[in-house]
């Protein structure tokens, strides 16, 4: 039996799962389910990427150890996959012992054969973020693109992987294997990168602790990407189960977002070539989702929560929409209203109605039992033939991961069957007593639905099971083989009572409910106001942009911090009553706005030379505070007017 091995990227656990994570995993799930139903010995892997800087920082921010954080957060992904009906065969975590051993073994092998060597890494470094910043992504005046702070040059000892040595071999491989990177636009991107300057890769860090140690040199941990990519090999027994590795590795395919193709289509295959392992059959890159036309971001509050989508519309509707709406590989825009539209037209109308009408007619005209066909006619033959060509064409489009095309094909067939009802008017045949003709029509419709249930099963598994049950069939469509389907075998089945598959959503009601549940702009309660001042009064308050350099606690003070601030032209010390609202690391390095001409005052024995600006409000007995910060880059000392 031919094998098929498919993987999702392993997800960082510093964040909660969002639509991007759901998308790749659903796409892989559909492919895995389809291949199982085509008789492949299928293995489907997903998991979590649990080492590295981001995780260490997220843990620090939450006051947890990295291990505590990853143990807690990875569960969110497992939960989501249950909710979305994901049929993965394995879930790998990079902190598992089985993986740590493989990474260390591969690292050692590459050191031993001279493909990993010790050197030094030099670059622009952001000390607070503990990260190197490539020249191409630096901010103005060599600042960190994330925190805006100045970068310094840094040189550290590092192990390097001889990527450059294997690049010509990989180019040759891709020249012969065009499906190595899909779609073509990404293939071209990778080829031009490979034909450029492929440099040896730094694969260890000494500035970070949360990673897999290199046993021969414990000062170093393995760089997180080198560690993460190896998960694909760990999970199919590279070290522990050579039989399993032999069974699945030759047919491995990785699905990833377009942002991480260099790691998957360059670095990983080069590592594999160095290790003497064959490179993946294909890396399939998908596009990115925006939301209602905008980039998704926490600060905009527009991150699509897949748990919520599944709860509101059902996992199947969400799965269907993501794969039907956008050609795989392209970027797409997520809109709940568009999803409601698809639920109503494709799922409730086309598929739901076909099921409902067919079952009711079999009940009404044939006592709930599917008749055998007595005669063939041109129309029923046309539907049967379309069923055959649909199955064949589906295979072709699934091979190129064209999910939207696959769904279009299936829906053309469903639409054909719906039209067939109108063309044959079974209610008339019944009235006229045309029993044989009616039998053919009912069987044709039943078979169209039985096949449709199989074809939609990879995409909308829960609904396929419901259809199967209503059709009165034994077993499950999910474990059936598509190619075992024989037109006509459904005769004699006893159908069940028709039930609504996808309730229609009333769009006007939906819009009203949306508007009512939209978060209200929060407004501070009305307060007393200060007496009016003139412009001169306002001008007499000198306010400037400054940067917080250092934050220290003041012993015995519950509220005060001692802040060292830099105004560009001078440094000052300020005492500020914001201790209850911010941790020192939330303030250090931040640009703030301060009053610079306030008379110095002694607080807890320290002279305070200014005042930080912050907005504050009392809400339900709690004080809420937000710092006032410049919205864009502006030199220290700039006057605020
Ligand atoms: N941990 C690495 C992958 C290591 S694989 C050896 C990683 N993780 S991630 O959690 O940040 O991202 C995982 C996937 O989510 C990526 O494939 C990325 O493309 C995808 N998406 C993140 N946001 C997305 C959208 N807005 N839309 C579609 N997919 C996006 O990278």
Task: Look at the helices and sheets and give the structural class.
Answer: alpha/beta
Shape: globular
| Main sheet characteristics | 7 strands, parallel
Tell me the span between the first and last alpha carbons. 75 Å
Write down the Rg: 31 Å
Helix content percent band: 40-55%
Number of strands: 25
- Architecture of the largest domain, according to CATH? 3-Layer(aba) Sandwich
Verbal overview:
There is one protein chain. With 641 residues, the chain is of the alpha/beta class. It has three domains: 3-287, HUPs (Rossmann fold, 3-Layer(aba) Sandwich); 334-484, Isoleucyl-tRNA Synthetase, Domain 1; 535-640, Nucleic acid-binding proteins (OB fold (Dihydrolipoamide Acetyltransferase, E2P), Beta Barrel). It is 43% helix and 18% strand. The strands form seven sheets. Strands 1, 2, 3, 4, 8, 12 and 13 form a seven-stranded parallel sheet that branches. Strands 16, 17, 18, 19, 22 and 25 form a six-stranded antiparallel sheet that branches. The protein has a four-stranded antiparallel sheet with strand order 6-5-7-9. A hairpin with a 2-residue loop joins strand 23 (614-619) and strand 24 (622-627). The longest helix is centred in the middle third of the chain and has 31 residues, at 336-366. The N and C termini lie far apart (75 Å).
